[in-house]
Protein 1
Amino acid sequence: MPVRLGDIAPDFTAETSQGPVHFHEWIDGGWAVLFSHPKDYTPVCTTELGAVANLKSEFSKRGVKVLALSVDKVEDHRGWIKDINETQHTQVDYPIIADPDRKVANLYDMIHPNALDNLTVRSVFIIGPDKKVKLTLTYPASTGRNFQELLRVLDSLQLTAQYSVATPADWKQGQDCIISPAVSDEDAKKKFPKGFKAVKPYLRITPQPNK
Ligand code: BEZ
C-alpha cells in the first residue's frame, strides 16, 4: 500500500546505527524526516548523508529529527559512516535504519522494482507532530536530492500549520504568502492585520504573518 499525504505514518521498530528505534515514540510529538537510500558505500548516497549531517543546525532549529534508511546491516552502516564523515567533512549523528529484510522499506513502499531491483529508491517522508504524513518525494538512484528544498518545505509546512495561509511557487522564508480561499475577505482583515492585496478575488497576497 502506498503511504499517502494525511495518513498516519506507519509505525515500526527497527535496528539503527544508534540502537533500536520505535518510530512513533522516537517522533515524540515533533517533526520528523524519514528518507531512504539505495545502498551503503555508494557515491551519491555518501554525498546525501553528508549533506544532511552538515545541515544539522538547520533541522534542529526547526525542531526536526532525521532518520535515514538503507537496506544494509548495522555493521555496514557503522563502517560507511566513517567514510561519510571523512569524505564529506562532517559527523553523521542521526540514526540510519538497517533494513536487510526490507520490513520498513516495504511498509513505506520504498522499493520500486521496475526502477531498482530489491533496493530502496530515494524516498522522503515528512511527518508532523500529529504523526501524519505531510510530504512524500521519490527520486531515482541517479539523482541526489536537494536538501535545501526539504528545509524550504518544512518552513512552509510549519507556517501553514499555524496560520490560514498557503505559500506560492518558489516561496522562501520571509516572502509574501497567499490567504487560504476558505477565509472570507471580512475574516482576512481580522486575521491579517498587516493587510492584503487582492490580485484576483481568489488570489490574495499578505506579508508572512509571523515575520
Ligand atoms: C549511488 O548512491 O551513487 C547509487 C546507488 C545505487 C544505484 C546507483 C547509484
Protein 2
Amino acid sequence: MPEKIIPKKKKKELNFRDITTCDATIQMLEKAKRDGVETAFDRAANMKACPIGADSACCKHCSMGPCRLNAKDPYGKVGVCGATIDTIMSRNFARMVAAGGAAHTDHGMSMLDLFRDVVKGEITDYKIKDPIKLDAVAKSVGVETEGRSMEDIALDLYAELEKTYTQVDGEIPFANRVPAKTLEVWRKQGIVPRGAMREIMELMHRSHMGVDQHYANITKQCSRTALADGWGGSMVATEISDILFGTPSPIGIEVNMGVLKEDQVNIIVHGHEPNLFESMIESVNTQSLIEEAKKAGAKGINLCGMCCSGAEVLVRHGIPHAGNFMSTEAILVTGAVDVMCVDVQCIKQGLAKVADCYGTQLVTTNPRCHIEGATHVEFHEHDPKACTDDVVIKAITRFKNRTAEVEIPQIKNIGVHGFSHEYIKYMLGGTFRASYRPLNDNIINGRIRGVAGVVGCTNPRVKQDFVHVELVKELIKNDILVVQTGCSQIALAKNGLTTPEAAVLAGPGLREVCETVGMPPVLGIGSCVDNSRILIACAEMVNEGGLGESIADLPVAGAAPEWMSEKAICIGQYFVASGVFTVFGVKFPIVEETKFHKHLFQGLEEEGMGKWGYTADPYEMARMMIAHIDKKRKQLGIDKARERVLMDMADRQKLDVA
Ligand code: XCC
C-alpha cells in the first residue's frame, strides 16, 4: 500500500516590519531567512499560543487531571477535585510568582555568598569597591560602623542580610526601609515577608493540590513572596553588587548591533550575574590575551553585553550594549560573534542552534544552566579567570577560523544611563543638599506630573520595542519622568530617548527640569534586580514629605509593556503590593470577569495596596497611567498646583506677546 503522504504545514511568511521596530534586528532576520536559519520570531508565528494556558484555565497539579476549564464560561465547571476557576488561576499565578522570586533571590544569594567569601579573604579576585556604600547599607540595617574596620562592618552586614533569605520568623532587614504607613498595611494583611526561602516554600506548598483553595488567601502569600523578592532578594543583590562593583553614576554608552567590530574578536556576555562579566572585563584587558588576539590577526578584543548582564555592566563601566532579549538570536546571524557567553535567566535554548549555524561558540558557565549543544566552562568565583580566560581563548580560536560570512548592521545609538537612586538624589539636590526635595517640589508645583517605571522584557508576541517606545514617548510628552530597567531601557536607548537632548520630546514642565539639570527625561537605572532602586526611590519620595504617607499615595505608576518572564510577574506583584498601579501588556494570564481578576485589578487597592492593570495598546496604557497619576494628584490636593503652572505659562506667553 502506498504510504500516505501528509503534506507538511506551510510555515508562515513573516513581514519583519510587523514584528520588530529594531532596524538592526530586521536586517539580521532578512539574512537569517536567506541563510535558512530560524529564530523565536518564526517559532512564535508558527506556534499559536495555547488558548487555555493563555487564560490560565488549565490545572495540571495532580494526575486526576489535567483539568481544562472553559474561559468563556469560567464558572460552568470545576476540576476533578472541585477546584474552581479562581483557585486554579490563583495557584498558577502563585507558581509564576514563586519561580520569578526564586530566580531573583537565588541570584541575590549568590551575590551575598560572593560578598562573604571576599570579606573573609577566601576570594581574592574581587574586592569591595564602594566602602561608602558599604557604610551606608550597614547603617541602614543597624550595624554599628563608628571606629570599626571595613572587614568587621562587612561581616556583620553579611550576617544581617543573610536573614533576607533564611529568616524563619519575623521581618526581613530591609522591611525597615518601607514607609511606615505602607508597612502598617502589610502588617494588617499579614504579608510582611520572612526570609525568601520560607516564603517561596510556603507558596509552593499552598499551591499544591488540596491545600489553599481561596484565591484571596493565595494572593496574600503571592504578595508576601513577591515582597521577599523586591524588598529582599533583589534589593540585597543590588546593594551588594554596588558595594563590590561600584554604585552606578551616569555614563554615555553605545547601544545596538553596530557595536560589534568585524576586525576584532567579538565576545558577548548575556544573562544576569555581574560577577561573570566583571571577570570577563579583566580577561579581555589581559595583555597576553590581547597579544594572542593580535597574533590571530584581530585588531583587539571587543566585549559587549546583552539583556540584563549588559544593562548592569553598562551602568557601571560603560561597556557597549548590543541589544535586548529579542535580539539575542538575531545578533548571532551577523556571523561576527566569536563567543556568546551566558550564565542564568532569559537564555533561549534556540541560541544553541543559531550559534551552530554560524560557527559561533555558545558557552554556558553556571552550574544551574547547561544547554544541549553548548560548551560548558564552569565559572568559579574562587578562580574566575580560569573560566573567562578560557572563553577569550575560545573566541580568539573562532576568530582565526571564521568561515561564516560577516554582516554587521551599521547602526549604533548613544544613551546616558546609570541613574542609581543615590545619583538621582545628588543630581537633583547637589553635593551639599542631596535629597529628593527638588523632585518632590517639582511634582508638587506640577512641572513634573508624576513618575513612571517602565521596565521588562521584549516578546515575539508583540512588535519588538514598539510598545515600550510609544508608551514612554506619550508619558514624557505629558510631563511624566520615566525610570527604566532591563530590556526596556535598551529599546528606548536604541531610539535616542535616553540622552539629555531627548528633553525636547518632553512636555514643557519636564523639559524645563531636564534642561536645568542636564538629565534625560528617561532614566536607565540597571537590570531587573535593580527594580529595587525604584522601590527605594519611592520610599525616599514618601519620606521626603509632601506627597502623602505611603507609596500608594504617590503620583506614580509602573508598566511592563512587552513582558514575557515569570520574574516579571513577581516584580509586578511586589510593585502592586507596595502600592503601585502596575500595567502589563501582551496578555494577562487570567480570565476577566472572575473573582480572582477583580481581586487583583481592584480588591488589593481597596486594602491599601496598588492594583494591576492590563492593555496591549501603548496609548491606552499611557492614558491609564496618566489617569492614575492625576487621581493621586487630586487626592493629594496638588492638582491645582499643576493648573497654576499652566496658567503661569499662559501668562508668560501673554507677556511675550505684549
Ligand atoms: Fe529577561 Fe533580565 Fe525580561 Fe530582559 S527584562 S527579558 S527578564 S533580561 Ni529584566
Protein 3
Amino acid sequence: MSEIIRIAVQKSGRLSEDSLNLIRECGIQFNNGTGKLKSEASNFPAEFLFLRDDDIPGYVADGVADIGIIGENVLVETNQPVNLIHRLGFSRCRLSLAIPRGEDYTHLTDLQGKRIATSYPRILSNFLSKNDIQADIHEISGSVEIAPSIGLTDAICDIVSSGSTLMSNGLKEVEVIFRSEAVLIAHSQLSDVRTQLLNKLIFRIKSVQTAQNNKYILLNAPNDAVEHIKSILPGMKSPTIVPLAEEGWCSIHSVIKENDFWEIIDSLREAGAQGILVVPIEKMIL
Ligand code: PRT
Ligand code: ZN
C-alpha cells in the first residue's frame, strides 16, 4: 500500500466543525459518521483520526498521527516536541486571569501570594515566573470559573472568548496572558512522501485562506471614470476592463480584500461606479 498521511482532528468540540470544514474546502472528501474514530479520504491519500484535543499533540509527537489540528493553548500547555506548521485563524480565544468582580485590581502584583485555579498550569506558571509573581496554582480540569465562589481560590486563569462565562460567574478579566487560535502541527520527522502530502495540504489551506480574505468585485462605470476608479481599486494585478453593450460604459472586475471593500465603497460610488457586485472567491492561488 502506498503511504498516506494520518491527520488527527478533534472528535467533538469547539475545533471539530471548523477543522472538518477547512479540510472539505481543501477538496478532501471523507465520511465522519457519528461515533467513527477513523476515516479514510476517498480522493486524497489521507486517513483521519478523531480524538480528544488534549491527546492530539502526544499522538503527533509519537508518530501515531503525522499531523493534527489543535488550539495553540493546548500545544503550548502539553509541551510536546512537535512542529507548529501553520496558523489556521479559527477558534480564536485568550487565556486570561480573572478575579471576583467586587475586588480591586490595579496591577499583576495584586496576585502576589494568591491562589489561582486553572487547567493551564504550565502556561500560567511560566507567565507568573516571568513577571516575578509567586502564587499558589491549583490545577483543576474543568469548571474553573466556579473556584472563587466556592472558596477554593482567589482568582482563576481560563480560556475566554465572549467573556459571558466570566460575567455570569461574577468574575472580571484582569490580564490576558496568552492568545490562541487553531494551528496545524506535524511530527518532527515525516517521511519524504508524507512531507510532500503535507506540503500539498498546506498549499490548499493557504489557497482557501487567501480566498476567504478576498472578494471579487464587479462594477459598471462610464469610460471617463475608469482611470479614477482604477486608482481606487487595490487589485491583485491590474483590473480587467470590458466594454458594455451600452456605448461609453464598461465593466471593471478586480479582487480586493474584504476589509478594504468597506473603506473604498464610498469613493467608488463618488467616482461614478454603479451596479457594484461583491462575490465570494472559493480558491485563490497567487
Ligand atoms: O473533549 P475535548 O477534550 O476534545 O474538548 P475540550 O472540551 O477540552 O475543548 P473544547 O472543545 O471546549 O475547546 C477546544 C479548543 O477551542 C480550546 O482548546 C481552545 O483553543 C478553543 N476555544 C475557543 C475555546 C473557547 N473558544 C472557549 N470559549 N475553548 C474553551 N472555551 C470555553 C472556556 O473554557 C470557558 O468555559 O468557553 C468558556 C468561555 O467562553 P465565553 O464565550 O463565555 O468567554
Ligand atoms: Zn480537551
Protein 4
Amino acid sequence: MLVSGNGSNLQSIIDHAEAGRIPATVACVISNKAGAYALERARNHSIPNTVLDHRDFPDRESYDAAMAGILRENGVELVALAGFNRIVSKVMLDAFPLAILNIHPALLPAFPGNHAQRQAVEHGVKIAGCTVHFVDAGTDSGPIIAQAAVPVFTSDNEETLSRRILQEEHKIYPEVIRLYAEGRIRVAGRQVLISPAHEPDGRFLENPPL
Ligand code: GRF
C-alpha cells in the first residue's frame, strides 16, 4: 500500500485481512513521508515498510521506477493508494496495469483533487461520500468501482464531514480489495463490472439515512 499520512484506511485493510475477511495480505507499505503514522501501523503488524522520499529523485518517473521495484520485490499484485499524496506516472501504470486503486473522499466525478470534503461543504451539497476507483493518468479520474454516500448537514464543517466519510471509506475499500482478490472485477471502458451481478452483502453505493 502507498501512504503519506495517518493510515486509517491502511489499518482497516490490515484488520480485515488479519480477520480473514479478505483473501489478501498487505505485502508492504511505502510512504513518501518519513513521519507518517501509517508506517507505525505497518510496524505494529510486522509488515515490511519503506520510506521513499520523492525529494531524493530527479523526476516522477525515476521515483516511480524505484517504487515499482520495491513493490515487485515484495510480490505485490495489487497496489492500493490510501492517502498517498502523489500522482503516479505512466511508469507505475505500465508496471501494474489495471492493478492500482485509490480511495477519494468525494462522490467522483464531483470534487476531484485536494480538500474534497471542504469543497463539498463550501459547495453546499446535500450528499457527499467516497469513491474507490482504478488509477489512470488523470487526477481521481479512473473507472469507478464502488461508492458510498453520506448526508451533509448544515451544521457540518470540513472536519465533521471528513469523519463521517472516513467511516464509509473503511468499509468500501476492504470490500473492493476482497472483490479484486476474488477475481470478480472486470473493466470495460469506463464501466466496472462486478460478478456475480447481484452482491447480496455488497455496498457499492450506500444510501444515507435522510
Ligand atoms: C482519506 O480521506 C482518503 O480518502 C484520502 O486521504 C485520506 C487518507 O486517510 N485520499 P488515512 O491516511 O487513510 O487515514
